[in-house]
From TrEMBL:
Keywords: Membrane, Transmembrane, Transmembrane helix. Pfam families: STAS, Sulfate_transp. It comes from Ornithinimicrobium kibberense. It is a multi-pass membrane protein. SUPFAM superfamilies: SpoIIaa-like (SSF52091). Its main location: membrane. Residues 1-31 are annotated as: Disordered. This is SulP family inorganic anion transporter. InterPro entries: Membrane-Transporter-like, SLC26A/SulP_dom, STAS_dom, STAS_dom_sf.
Length: 520
């Protein structure tokens, strides 16, 4: 699949990521293996992501209330697994904070075995939901919810770095500034090596050579010294166990799918490529199953790490995803002491740059805000606020989608009208025998609720014709409203005829009329 050159810039700043050259535009793994320049980009991108994954996986383990190695092993297993079974090349899937928050109560109240059983059940549920076509629901997520999702995520990524900048030695601040300077300035000179990797190496070397005592990765938790082993949770296979873990597993499955599909959609836009969302859905389930059987905490797509991989480092294939997992395991098991020396300032600088690059600055430009309808801006704002307040992207997206639906229904509710168009005097006695009403617009619950009040029941002729040739019946609410209109006329001894129905509306009306209870 060809990949057009895509450059991401910030206002007044240089490009932030490696721009694929003409010979590097193929995104297939096989093509990348034949292209030394592309392969180098993928390898270095995987290394950068692995370094950034370590403190996050440890912190997510702490959130979940489990040993740091649970998050680290989970990130390794999921990244390697999703590289083979996932539907979105270059997307990073590993242990995440959203999943940790959802299932943390299980570890706290029932222990590790029930915790792992929850992860395994969530993986099964994700596979089932994928088979049922949950990925197709992505088309119902409005653009402004997506924009709000991206902006909220950028804010959360930045907020996650704040604790590393509070009550720390003053040298941390110039080191963070140095890292940002390297990542902004280096791409002006060369894109041969990812700027974040250079920043991490330079800051680590400088701190070590000068003997500065800065907070480092080892301060976040103990790194494992052995490889992950197969783990089968010791829980009774009873209905009681299912009642305990079932709600948490379902919540984890839904949150994980939502975040992964939203991230895949975002990466599709960044790279101008299309990905298989259904495969990504069941692939996530498989990855969570693999994670659980190796004692991992499970997870989903990580948008921050994915942006490092795709936007900042220029990766485009599954190689970077696979190597991110491999490098992560090699670093924490084989080079733990060296990795532990990396100052958190270096990783904070990387994540701040990711946050700035992720935010959709165009969406908050005054000119854009003035041009967009108030309802669209409100949907974006609600998505951002709910996500930031709850620290849960799923909640923000759900609120944003529901707000968009309500505002859309409110907006189109005014587009239906009922007009009296014809009065016919059949007998020639000067009194109209037939009165025709023309109904225009889309008829559904928001527009049809007032339909019953649009007719002059007592003053109308003995026969009333309702012409629906310029409208469409979408739901049972409309059929019920038409039934209510007919009932009111019939009580007055008047005849009602509905004409002009298109085939779809006629079929729905014929199927439901008279079956929805007495019209009032």
């Amino acid at each position: 699949m060809a990949e057009p050159t895509s450059t991401t810039t910030l206002p007044g700043q240089p490009h932030l990521h490696v721009v694929p050259e003409a010979g590097e535009r193929e995104t297939s793994t096989r093509a990348a293996l034949r292209n030394p320049r592309r392969l180098r980009t993928e390898v270095l991108a995987g290394l950068v992501v692995a370094l950034a994954l370590i403190p996050e996986a440890i912190s997510f383990s702490i959130i979940a209330g489990v040993d740091p190695r649970v998050g680290l092993f989970s990130s390794f297993v999921m990244a390697v697994t999703i590289a083979f079974v996932g539907g979105r090349p270059a997307m990073i899937t590993a242990a995440t904070g959203a999943v940790a928050l959802v299932i943390a109560p299980v570890a706290r109240e029932y222990g590790l075995d029930y915790f792992i059983a929850t992860v395994l059940l969530a993986g099964v549920l994700q596979i089932v939901l994928a088979v049922l076509g949950v990925a197709r629901l992505m088309r119902f997520i409005p653009r402004m919810v997506m924009v709000g999702f991206v902006n909220a995520l950028a804010i959360l990524i930045f907020m996650a770095q704040v604790p590393y900048l509070v009550d720390v030695p003053w040298l941390v601040y110039p080191m963070v500034a140095l890292g940002l300077l390297i990542m902004v300035g280096l791409p002006r000179l060369t894109t041969a090596v990812p700027a974040p990797l250079v920043a991490i190496v330079v800051i680590t070397t400088l701190a070590w050579a000068a003997g500065w005592q800065l907070p480092d990765v080892s301060d976040q938790g103990e790194l494992p010294t052995s490889l992950p082993e197969l783990f089968v949770p010791d829980v009774p296979l009873t209905l009681e166990t299912l009642q305990i873990i079932g709600p948490y597993a379902l919540a984890m499955a839904l949150v994980g799918l939502l975040e992964s599909l939203m991230t895949a959609k975002l990466v599709d836009g960044v790279t101008d490529t299309h990905s298989d969302k259904t495969r990504e859905s069941w692939g996530l389930g498989v990855a969570n199953l693999a994670s659980g059987f190796f004692g991992g905490m499970g997870g989903c797509a990580m948008i921050g790490q994915t942006m490092i991989n795709v936007k900042v480092s220029g990766a485009r294939t599954r190689i970077s995803t696979f190597l991110a997992g491999v490098f992560l395991l090699a670093l924490v098991v084989g080079a733990g002491p060296a990795v532990g020396m990396i100052p958190m300032a270096a990783l904070v600088a990387v994540m701040i740059m990711v946050s700035v690059a992720t935010f959709d600055w165009h969406s908050v430009h005054p000119a854009t805000l003035r041009r967009m309808p108030v309802s669209e801006n409100l949907v974006m704002l609600l998505t951002v606020v709910v996500t930031v307040v709850t620290h849960n992207l799923a909640y923000g997206v759900i609120v944003g989608v529901n707000a968009a639906i309500i505002l859309f229904a409110r907006r189109v509710a005014h587009f239906a009208s009922v007009d009296q168009v014809v009065e016919t005097d059949v007998d020639g006695d000067g009194e109209p025998d037939v009165r025709t009403y023309k109904v225009s617009g889309e008829l559904f619950f928001a527009t049809s609720n007032d339909l019953v009040y649009q007719f002059d029941y007592a003053g109308d002729a003995h026969k009333v014709v309702i012409d629906l040739s310029d409208s469409h019946i979408w739901d049972a609410s409309t059929v019920a409203a038409l039934d209510a209109v007919q009932t009111k006329y019939e009580r007055l001894g008047k005849e009602v005829e509905i004409v002009g129905l298109n085939w779809s509306s006629a079929a729905r009306h014929e199927q439901l009329t008279g079956q929805l209870g007495e019209g009032h």
